[in-house]
Amino acid sequence: MAHEDDALAHERDSWKPSSGLAVAVKEPVQTPALPPHRERMTDKDPAAMKRAVRTVYTLFYLSVAGSIAAMVAYFAFPIESGRLTDIRYNNLFIGLGIALALLAIGIAAIHWSKAIMADKEHIEPRHATRGKDTTRAAVVESFRTANEESGFGRRALIRNGLFAALAASILPGITLFRGLAPFDSTENPIAGNPVALLEHTMWGEGMRLALDPTGEPIRAADVTLGSAFHVIPEPLAELSHEEGYLEEKAKAIVLLMRLRPEDLPAETNRLDWTYDGIVAYSKVCTHVGCPVALYEQLTHHLLCPCHQSQFDVANGARVIFGPAARPLPQLPITVDDEGYLVAQSDFTEPVGPSFWERR
Questions:
Q1: pLDDT tens per residue, range 300-326
Q2: Which domain CATH number covers 294?
Q3: What is the extent of the structural domain holding 64?
Q4: What predicted TM-score, i.e. pTM, was given to this entire model?
Q5: CB–CB of 223/198 below 8 Å?
Q6: Is the dihedral angle over the CA atoms 125, 126, 131, 132 positive or is it negative?
Q7: Average of pLDDT values for 341-350?
Q8: d(CA 67, CA 225)
Q9: pLDDT value for 88
Q10: pLDDT(354) > 60
């Protein structure tokens, strides 16, 4: 063993790099210098600078146009009219106008900084931060330098365009506050009155319940235990969109379910509004109007997918969870001589969101 250790030690000590090999020596990493400065086209070509300036202030005034368009859309498509098309176009064009206003400001600011402001690289060494009398003078000088490099003080078109765009961008938001003002009902007592708009739907006495969207009438015998049907008034399927199909459907949609009659206690249900365990409730959530379409057969609960309000069908569709303020309105139903389900009348209370109750 001792001879083996001596041999290994001799081999280790005797190994040396050959004279023909160069030994690499690592140099310390140097801080890379700034790359060579590349002049922009706007720095070399006065015509390019003029085009960039025109682009920036044009974008600012395009932002002003977007703000104005949003305000025009607010008045051109008044949501107080109660028409679904007005509500749709109101949201669409106000959103597009505000988006154009803000996007144009952002693009203009970026293009201004990249193509027009002074393009100089510099290194600012760190130094101790402490208050001195010379600090104020240095701050003033830095603002003066920034103003000179940005061209803010001498490029009046860009400056004025920026001021106009920023001022106009807040006007659509101010305009929207008009919707919070009291409504004058002297000209149209229904428009803008949520109670009047939601109190009456297309349902009427003797009107058959039909499948949505085919309009096929529903027989009571076809409604099996535990099933749920999406229902509309039978005449609705014959309306065109120009005749108000969407507006009427938005208020008249109903969910039809069948429970065992013993699962409907008389103290919490209007049994004379049901037929052999079949009940019909408005699909429009009483929170903000989302469609309540998820039915749990075992628990008899209806779930609104938007904000998780839950309604107990076995107990008058009362609210058992979530932000909804009142039970779903019930549609009184019965059957006609041919066995088809029909409405006894319209809803006896307004359908949809309950925000109007806060008055």
A1: 999 999 999 999 999 999 999 999 989
A2: 2.102.10.10
A3: 41-119+143-176
A4: 0.55
A5: no
A6: negative
A7: 93
A8: 55
A9: 83
A10: yes
Task: Give the pLDDT confidence score for residue 241 in this predicted structure.
Answer: 81
Q: Please list the alpha-helical segments (H only) found in the chain.
A: 2-14, 41-44, 46-76, 84-115, 133-150, 156-169, 171-176, 194-199, 245-252
Strand partners, 330: 281
Q: For residue 305, say if its preceding peptide bond is cis, omega within 30 degrees of 0.
A: no
Amino acid making up residue 302: L
Rounded to 10°, the helix 46-76/156-169 angle is 20
pLDDT (average), residues 258-277? 92
Do 228 and 299 sit in the same domain of this protein?
yes
From the list 288, 84, 77, the residue with the least C-alpha distance to 175 is 77
Q: Count how many residues are written for the chain.
A: 359
Angle (deg, nearest 10), helices 245-252 and 84-115? 100
Helix, strand and coil content of the chain, in percent to the nearest 5, comes to 45, 15, 40
Tell whether 201 is covered by a domain: yes
Model pLDDT for residues 155-195, shown as the tens digit of each residue = 788 888 888 888 888 888 888 777 666 555 555 555 556 67
Confirm if 82 and 65 have CB atoms less than 8 A apart.
no
Q: Are strands 228-233 and 254-258 parallel, antiparallel or unpaired?
A: antiparallel
Closest CA to 281 of 236, 206, 331: 331
Q: Hunting for tokens 């949609």 — which residue is that?
A: 253
* Whether 99 and 237 share a structural domain: no
